[in-house]
Design a protein that fits this description.
Layout: H1 2-13, H2 17-31, E1 35-40, H3 43-58, E2 70-73, H4 78-87, H5 95-101, E3 107-112, H6 118-129, E4 133-138, H7 143-146, E5 162-165, H8 171-190
Parallel strand pairs: 1-2, 1-3, 3-4, 4-5
């Protein structure tokens, strides 16, 4: 029960304003025939795949969305990821793909518990250079990250238009909250 109590408490503390902002960006991406890219590592890679499926299939089953979403999980192409990781650098597994298939007006959604994954930060940097919107879902942002007087480790905060922060540093809680947030978004978009 302790885990469920922590999860429930955390979900209730998430600010809805940035969730609504992400829904607006997703609606714009749909209406402008832009591509939504989602990326994450480990459990967040599975969440990226799941949300790409929700956007491409579940949301578009609604007749109001009959022309569909183009949503791609950058975490899905195992051959591409291992080729880039082996031949170039693991930090480039997402940015290399975005450089080739991303375009101005697309949207990148990064999923990371820590917010400090170098491959996601590089992807965010490439996306910004190509005039794409970048939104990140992270765990709790530590105070030294936001203190400008302190030199901090690179963070998705540095390359994102905005962050949806889950107020926890427990990876299981954060990953479950990310999935709940994205299911909430898909559910709202089905009913638009």
């Amino acid at each position: 029960m302790d885990y469920f109590e922590k999860l429930s408490k955390c979900l209730l503390q998430i600010e809805n304003g940035n969730i609504d902002r992400l829904i607006t960006l997703l609606s714009f991406a749909h209406d402008s025939y832009s591509t939504v890219f989602i990326a994450g590592n480990g459990g967040s890679a599975a969440t990226a795949s799941h949300f790409a499926t929700d956007l491409s299939k579940s949301v578009t089953e609604n007749l109001l969305w009959d022309d569909g979403f183009t949503a791609i999980s950058l975490s899905d192409n195992t051959s591409m990821i291992t080729a880039i990781g082996n031949d170039i650098d693991y930090r480039d597994i997402f940015s290399f793909q975005l450089e080739r298939i991303g375009r101005e007006g697309d949207l990148l959604i990064c999923l990371s518990v820590s917010g400090t994954s170098p491959n996601l930060i590089r992807a965010g940097t490439v996306a910004r250079m190509n005039c794409m919107d970048v939104v990140s879902l992270t765990g709790q942002i530590m105070p030294d990250i936001t203190n400008n007087a302190t030199k901090h480790k690179e963070h998705l905060l540095d390359v994102s238009d905005f962050i949806i922060e889950v107020p926890s540093d427990d990876y299981g809680i954060v990953e479950d909250c990310h999935m709940a947030i994205l299911h909430n978004i898909a559910s709202k978009m089905k009913n638009m």
